[in-house]
Amino acid sequence: MNLTLDLDDKATEDLVAIFQDESQSRSIRDGAFIVLCLRFRKNLLEKCEFICERFNHNALVAELIAERTFKKYATNPGYLSEKSKAPDCNTGFLLYLCGIAEKELTNYYREQKRRMAGYDYDGTEQVIADLPDIPQERLDVETKVKHAAIQSLSQNQKAVYLTYQYYEREGFNLPRKLQADLRAHIGVEKQARIRGIKKEAVDIVNAYVEAMTITKKEINGAG
After folding, report:
1. Measured between alpha carbons, how far is residue 46 from residues 38, 81, 222 in Å?
2. Distance between terminal CA atoms of the chain?
3. What is the crossing angle of helices 191-222 and 176-186, to 10°?
4. Disulfide: which of 27, 101, 171, 204 matches 69 by Cβ 3.0-4.6 Å?
């Protein structure tokens, strides 16, 4: 029996209901999803091409965004026809997919921006709790002073400072999982407390570096 053919004549609202009903068998839900993809792919792709063109992206990016849109819906199906202001379910569901597509295009833009900056998060990020073991003779004076400043921090301050120093990039937040891991490591619930600890640590390290700079100037001036 070909489930796709059996479901092909069903109305969109019925297909959505079947796919979003977790009590249905996996095969029936998969069949409903395939029919939805076949039914809406052309219109969604046209919408994606229009959206991408506004941001100077080509048809290949539009196809990628359309594919991501269906994947996003597949992993997080949440269309509710009763909340849609569209005149019918076909229009409402397409508008719902377009909303996902716009978010996916934003995510794509952010990914490209990270790559252009030479940095991208890949899920392997982890809390850094201490400095690497580097022989002191390999370090210049400035680095030694900064290392001394970091070693003077409390364990919590050190973990927050080092984790942000290693992973933070201008214009981007740390990955949510890493933020959660850092909160768990420190033993706090609110990200605001992490930001407070970060500021404390940065102020201490900057004070060390500033003191070194002043001392160098005084030595050079005396010389």
Report:
1. 14, 22, 72
2. 92
3. 80
4. 101
pLDDT per position as a tens digit, 40-87: 999 999 999 998 888 888 888 999 999 999 999 999 999 998 888 999
Between the alpha carbon of residue 184 and those of residues 6, 97, 105, 126, the distances in Å are 50, 36, 32, 12
Q: Residue 34 and residue 28: Cα distance in Å, rounded?
A: 10
Contact status, residue 112 vs residue 57, Cβ threshold 8 Å: no
To the nearest 10 degrees (0 to 180), the angle between helices 155-167 and 191-222 is: 90
DSSP-derived secondary structure for 14-69: HHHHHHT-TTS-HHHHHHHHHHHHHHHHHHHHHHHHHHHHHTT--HHHHHHHHHHH
